[in-house]
Amino acid sequence: MTEGDPGYRGGMSSTRVLILGGDGYLGWPTALHLSARGYEVALVDDFSRRRWHLEQSTDSLTPIRSLDERVDAWEEISGHRLQTHVGDICDADFLDGVVASFRPEAIVHYGQQSSAPWSMTSRRHAVETQQNNVVGTLNLLFAIRDHAPDCHLVKLGTMGEYGTPDIDIEEGFIEIEHKGRRDVLPFPKQPHSFYHLSKVHDSHNIHFTCRVWDLRATDLNQGVVYGIETEETALDERLITRFDYDQAFGTALNRFCVQAVIGHPLTVYGSGNQTRGTLNIRDTLQCVELAIVNPAEPGEYRVFNQFTEQFSVRELAALVQRAGHELGLDVEIAELENPRVEAEEHYYNAVHTKLLELGLRPHLLGGELVRSMLGVIARYRDRIIEHAILPRARWRGAPEVESDAARLARRYESGRANGARPVAAPEPVAE
Ligand code: NAD
Ligand code: USQ
Fold it and tell me: What's the pLDDT tens digit per position in 160-215?
């Protein structure tokens, strides 16, 4: 963001920003985006995401480099050095040390277990998700209070905290009249998974510490992110960010694009009328920078709904199918029994004006963007692990979905004429 941009507030570009989860899908491109604009950037990550992939024999589609290699490549290309701290934010002494030594003016907190299906896989996954996410954020709040009390916390929350109520979703707070009295209160939360619940718990803890310790925080309730490249990651293959398409960590549009490239039927769950807010990865970077340059006041806890458009899952699948056809791909849309417990027919209208008012200029979703994603994915198609695609995590833990997924696997296998490796039916998760 530079002078002349609507969200520019001047004099902020040398700000010290600490990015938690700086090795992740969004954290890494955010680090490059801010570094390119003159911010002094330090990263924290414990590589848990790389470890979770190893555990389930899956991997990023894109061949991401080690953090050291990425950081060296960025220095070679940009002349800017990123500071790195490898460690777990659940380790309070480690995090205290980082915050005390770097003295950040803003902290962008991406460093969490980010998958709803992963959190629903078993008791262990649910416990690990909530321990990692809630304890990590609590440690961070204490570190800010004790070592950088004026620092602005920019926390990644999620639109899924609200669920799908039958009324418009406001940005964090709603004015309520009850028995003749009025108040502005936190918007009711009905999250979709143990992962989404962890974000609700975080929101309460952050709001509380703004009230009692005068911390300043912005909770970015982000929708589902799509896209692969950003301005900086496209400069050199060594800077590419991770891109996941597996059943646990891949999100809908990203998964559909990978499926289209290999001729796998697009895995629409249930009716496909589930509607969510979405945004381009480039807009995540814009939104985070807008929050940094327009900080919350001391004691203020504010919430921005961070998405640019709403789509149903079926609309996303249709968009990918059209774009695929234009590129000569044969794209079929499958209807899988929904492995999740979620409303499939529901009202959805979420307010999202605050970031637009600060100057967000959205990159909207269209055929051109999807075709360009298909092109990038095709470069890495040999890396696609097909058995990772069909859903395994089941919200109720019932076996029916597996047989449904196995049926789709058989159809896919029998439909393949090119001799490529057949997809394996998913195994039940035993834990
Ligand atoms: P990601 O998994 O790619 O990145 C998270 C990073 O945090 C990983 O590199 C991981 O190793 C690190 N991490 C996790 N726990 C840690 C810990 N205890 N200590 C240190 N590092 C830790 O996820 P992402 O897609 O980049 O998402 C980033 C954040 O944005 C997450 O909080 C996620 O919930 C939120 N979010 C993501 C999306 C999306 O569609 N990608 C949408 C809404 C919100
Ligand atoms: N879906 C399908 N087929 C698929 C994958 C998903 O139909 O192959 C459906 C799901 O059932 C759901 C919708 O698509 O109705 C969105 O699912 P998703 O996997 O794209 O996104 P979700 O699980 O909600 O989680 C993602 C990120 C998470 C973030 C959240 C934002 O992984 O970090 O918090 O999006 S939000 O959805 O707004 O809460």
Answer: 999 999 999 999 999 999 999 999 999 999 999 999 999 999 999 999 999 999 99
Give 212: exposed, middle or buried? Use CB within 10 Å, 0-12, 13-18, 19+: exposed
Cβ–ligand 1 contact at 320 (below 6 Å) = no
Residue 294 has pLDDT above 90, yes or no: yes
Q: Which residues pair with 216 in a beta bridge?
A: 152
Q: Whose CA is nearest to atom 10 of ligand 2?
A: 269
Q: Are strands 16-20 and 40-45 parallel, antiparallel or unpaired?
A: parallel
How far apart are alpha carbons 266 and 314 in whole angstroms? 10
Q: What is the pTM of this model?
A: 0.93
- The secondary structure element, H or E, covering residue 173 is strand 173-178
Asked if 86 and 43 count as a contact pair (C-beta separation under 8 A), the reply is: no
Concatenated DSSP letters for 15-37?
A: -EEEEETTTSTTHHHHHHHHHHT
Computed from CA positions of residues 278, 304, 114, 122, in that sequence, does the dihedral angle turn out positive or negative? negative
Q: How far is the CA of 269 from the centre of ligand 2 (A)?
A: 10
Task: Report the alpha-carbon distance of residue 377 to residue 40 in Å, rounded.
Answer: 32
How far apart are alpha carbons 407 and 429 in whole angstroms? 18
Q: Which helix (H) or strand (E) holds 130?
A: helix 123-130
- Whose CA is closest to 199, among 156, 170, 140? 156
Amino acid identity for residue 417 in this structure: A
| Catalytic residue (choose from 162, 195, 226, 245) | 195
Q: Cα–Cα distance between 106 and 116 in angstroms, integer? A: 27
| 326 residue type, one letter | E
| CA-closest residue to ligand 2 atom 21 | 251
In one letter, which amino acid is 423? V
Rounded Cα distance, 116 and 342, in Å: 12
Assess whether the C-beta atom of 112 lies below 6 angstroms from ligand 1.
yes
Distance from first CA to last CA of the chain, Å, rounded?
A: 47
Residue ranges per domain, the chain? 16-227+280-308
Instruction: Give residue ranges with CB within 6 A of ligand 2.
Output: 114-116, 158-160, 196, 223-224, 251-252, 255, 267-269, 274, 276-277, 313, 340, 342
CA–centroid distance, residue 45 to ligand 1 (Å): 10
For domain 16-227+280-308, say whether CATH 3.40.50.720 is its number: yes
- Long-range Cβ contact pairs of 394-400 (< 8 A, separation 24 or more): 394/120, 394/339, 395/120, 395/193, 395/339, 395/340, 395/341, 395/342, 396/341, 399/428, 400/337
Instruction: Please say if 164 is a catalytic residue.
Output: no
- Tell me what pLDDT residue 397 has: 81
